[in-house]
Design brief:
The protein is of the alpha/beta class. The chain has helices spanning about 15-25, 40, 45-55, 65-75, 90-100, 115-130, 150-155, 155-160, 185-200, 200-205, 215-220, 345-355, and strands spanning about 5-10, 30-35, 60-65, 85, 110-115, 135-140, 150, 165-170, 210, 230, 250-265, 280-285, 300-305, 310, 320-325, 335-340, 370-375.
Length: about 375
Amino acid sequence: MDENKNAWVEISSEALSHNIELIRTRIGSHTKLCAVIKGNAYGHGLIGVKKILSENDLSDMCAVGKISEMLRVFRKTEDDGKDVLLLGMAEACEVEAMLGKVPDRSRRAVFSVYNIRHFNELNELGIRLNIRIRVHIRVDIWDSGMGLGYGYFREHEDELFAAEGLDICGLYGHLYSAYYEDRGVTRRELEAFDELVKSIRPEHRKRLIVHVMNSSLIFSFPEYTYDMVRAGTAIYGLPCGDEGLLKPVMKVCARIFDVRKIDAATPLTYQPVDKRLGKRKIARAMIGYCDCPILLTRGDVRIMIHGRIYPQADECCMDNLCIDVTGSDDVTEGDIAVLLGESGVRAEDVVINNHMAMLHADWLCYTAERLDKVYK
């Protein structure tokens, strides 16, 4: 580790590999794994995580959320022979522009189709460019605009697969009920999706990679893995019903640069404090809400030093964290404070302490670009 770093994020390739291998034991050897790296790989670093996946042959495909992320992957990483699926919406003009920028990687690009207008425009683009653009059709049990309705897909199946400018190579759904406490609703929606899949004509079905499972379903409904599962929070070791089997991939660290005893009433940051008596022992680290905007703006921020948990002393600044280490006799300058990623300050610990919804645990991993990421 660079001794001059004030604050950094450690990304463990060993933990990432462990989590993916655990997922593979649940889904079976014949099911592909799509590693979701959208949102800057859930804060873990888009390009860094993609390189780990490629160098260790950990996934069969990866998925991004925006076309700009797809372009970055193609430009910043070597071709590993794996497809990149865009889960988000990209208009035909954006698809054309991107394909023109990375023509050598165009066959690795797979786009999502959300509605029939989008389908037709991509088909026209493919015909005009004299190529077949590869797409996965998104379907939705509800008529919500997040995919073709099941009824529409059934009624127009033959027309869809006859498109001359598109290579329909996948079909998928995303069940928001996967995050409900009532798993009965989720099961009914999975059964409805299963009925749709079973109704697809055999000559069309054999062309498709079908996927509906995300991290929150992998450990609960393994019978619906189909051809592929999409794993995001699970590969990063964030809570998703795994019963503690996954390992956190991210560790947020900061180096203590000052430790001193001060009058309890001395203000430390923006907010004045109540009149207090006595002394406090304060440790400071050069990290703040600009580096970890969600993690360091919780009401109950806890920091680990030498295996012991300490509270935040006062509201943090943009790049200044004050830790109340009153009563300690072993905290000194140069010590490393862990804000996230070890027992006591894992994502689920922070979620529980701050009464957050567990499905939002990934928010805690969103860090600023200026916070160095060290891939171990």
